[in-house]
Amino acid sequence: MEKGDIVQLEYEGWIAGSDDLFDTTKEDVAREYDAYDEERNYGPMYTVIGTGRLIKGLDDHILEAEVDKDYEIEIPPEDAYGERDPKNVETHSMREMARLKVEPEYGRVVTIRNKTGWISGIFAGRVRIDYNHKLAGKTLRYKYKVVGRPEGPEEIARAIIAMNYGREEEFELEMEGDDGIIITLPDVCKYDPNWTLAKLRLVNDMREIAEMTTVTMREVYVKMEAPEETEEGAEEAPADEESEVPEETEEGAEEESEVPEETEEGADEESEVPEETKVEAEEESEVPEESEVPEESEEEKAE
Questions:
Q1: Can you name the CATH fold of 1-82+137-149?
Q2: CB 71 within 8 A of CB 51
Q3: pLDDT in tens, 172-217
Q4: What are the extents of the domains in the chain?
Q5: HEC per residue, the chain
């Protein structure tokens, strides 16, 4: 291995002399030792060796490592995260925490007056913040293996994308000669606020590590074809409209069907008129009964 090489690494990080797992690339190990982080993507990671991106003890050891070989090493504090400095520990009141809108919780990382630390203790009315690294003053034990080394410009470019942003398989790459590259961005980059800073790091690594003199970022916006949407709408619209008309017509038919019912009621009322007429007719028919005078007049004549 040489300084500036990109390697793919899997590892487990432990506090020496204990079963405290503080970091790993293996999901099953993280779950087993209650160190699983839902927001993390597990799997072998890419890194650049010999450039200070890893702690010194691990970085120096990987330079002498071989691919696909397992290693286990212990790293003292001076080659890890340094000795713990008591001067980097401060105590703040609960009132100050409330004013800074910081909710006290053990282990929480906080930034106060441009200094980043972590809450290492909570007492009556006070909060202790440690500005040392959480692993400062501790001897570490690493189990690791170099599982691969990218070769060729495109593999190296994808490894650089993986280190700085992730989603490396979603980027389209096109090489321009030996020292130029065109990178077509996936849609997620157009709306991700984190992409802005990641892009600056990516371009810098493309120049420093991949030795690209020209890096072109391309965003593509494809217009949706309207005819396809229109056809779908055309297929749906008639069915909806036609299906509604009969329903409304049937409702109308039901409303109209009520009219004959009212007419029948009216017919019943009108049918009473002949009954009254019959009564009148019967009354009028009594007149001939009263008119028996001609018969009497005949008898009188006979007499």
A1: Chitinase A; domain 3 (3.10.50)
A2: no
A3: 999 999 999 999 999 999 999 999 999 999 999 999 999 999 999 9
A4: 1-82+137-149, 86-130
A5: CCCCCEEEEEEEEEECCCCCEEEECCHHHHHHCCCCCCCCCCCCEEEECCCCCCCHHHHHHHCCCCECCEEEEEECHHHCCCCCCHHHEEEEEHHHHHHCCCCCCCCCEEEECCEEEEEEEEECCEEEEECCCCCCCCCEEEEEEEEECCCCHHHHHHHHHHHHCCCHHHCEEEEECCCEEEEECCCHHHHCCCHHHHHHHHHHHHHHCCCCCEEEEECCCCCCCHHHHHHHHHHHHHHHHHHHHHHHHHHHHHHHHHHHHHHHHHHHHHHHHHHHHHHHHHHHHHHHHHCCHHHHHHHHHHC
CATH of domain 86-130: 2.40.10.330
Q: What is the pLDDT of residues 286-295, one digit of tens each?
A: 444 444 444 4
Q: Which two tokens stand for residue 217?
A: 């970022």
pLDDT in tens, 251-268: 444 444 444 444 444 444
Does this model's pTM top 0.85? My answer is no
Cβ atoms within 10 Å, residue 269:
9
